[in-house]
Amino acid sequence: xxxxxxxxxxxIPMVGLGTVGLNGNEGKELIKDAIKVGYxxxxxxxxxxxxxxxxxxxxxSKIERSELFIxxxxxxxxxxxxxxxxxxxxxxxKLQLDYIDLLLIHEPYKCSYDMYEAIKEAYLDGKIKAIxxxxxxxxxxxxxxxxxxxIPMINQLESHIYFTQEELRKKMLEKKVYxxxxxxxxxxxxxxxxxxxxxxxxxxxxKTPAQIALRFLIQRHIGVIPKTSNRDxxxxxxxxxxxxxxxxxxxxxxKLDQNKSVTSWYRNDWF
Length: 271
Description:
Layout: E1 3-5, E2 11-13, E3 16-18, H1 24-37, E4 41-43, H2 51-61, E5 69-74, H3 81-95, E6 100-105, H4 112-124, E7 128-134, H5 138-147, E8 154-158, H6 166-173, E9 178-182, H7 196-205, H8 209-218, E10 223-224, H9 231-238, H10 247-254
Parallel strand pairs: 3-4, 4-5, 5-6, 6-7, 7-8, 8-9, 9-10
Antiparallel strand pairs: 1-2
Helix pairs in contact: 1-2, 3-4, 7-8
C-alpha cells in the first residue's frame, strides 16, 4: 500500500474500501476480508447506517489500531455545533474507537460552519487525526475555505475518467487540500468496463479496464475508495501500483472527460 501525506503531516493510504451498502454479517465479513488482503483505509459515514458493522469488523480483524485508517462523515442530521459534537462521540462509540482518522462533512450544508467548529474542536482534542469536507464543488469549496478557520485536509469528491474534476484538483493543490475520489469507477455507469481506450491499455499492461481507470487517478495523486462486494475485486482494486501509464496515455484518458457527474450528488450550491 502507498501513502500520501496530508497538509497536517498525517499519512493516508491511497486506496481504501468504500462501505456504502455493506451491512449486517455479510458486510462485516467482507470488510474483514478487505483488511485481511491488505486494505488499511475503511470509509464509512453516519448516512450509511453501518458504523456499528464497521466497528465490529475492525475489532474482529485483530489488527493493530495504528495500522488502520478509518473515515466517517457527519451529515445534515448533525445540524449545529452541539449536535455535531454529540454525533462525533456517538460515531466513536459505534466504531468502538478512541479516535477517528478522518472526519468529513458529507455535503455542503447551510450548517456546515457550525458543524466544522465541533469537528475542529475534536481535532484539537485528539479525537480526530484529520478533518475535511466531501462533495464541495469549486464554488462551495472556495467559499468554505475563506472563513472556515482551518483549511481542510481533504475534499472527497466524485471523480473518474468521465468526470475528472481536474481544474478543481489544481485549485485545491494551492492550499494542499488532498483530493480523494469516491465512485472512481463511475458507479458502473457510462459503460466504463467496455471503454475502448481502457481496453487497449488493459491489453498492453495486462490489467483490467478497472485497474487502468484507478491508476489514472492514483497517478495524479488522487486517492480512491472503490466500493465492491466482490472478494476477487477487492484484490484487483489494490493491484494498481506495479505499472505506470505514459504521458500520452494519460492525455488519451483525459479526452474521455465529459465534465459531467454520473450521480445525483454533485450540486451547484449550498443546501
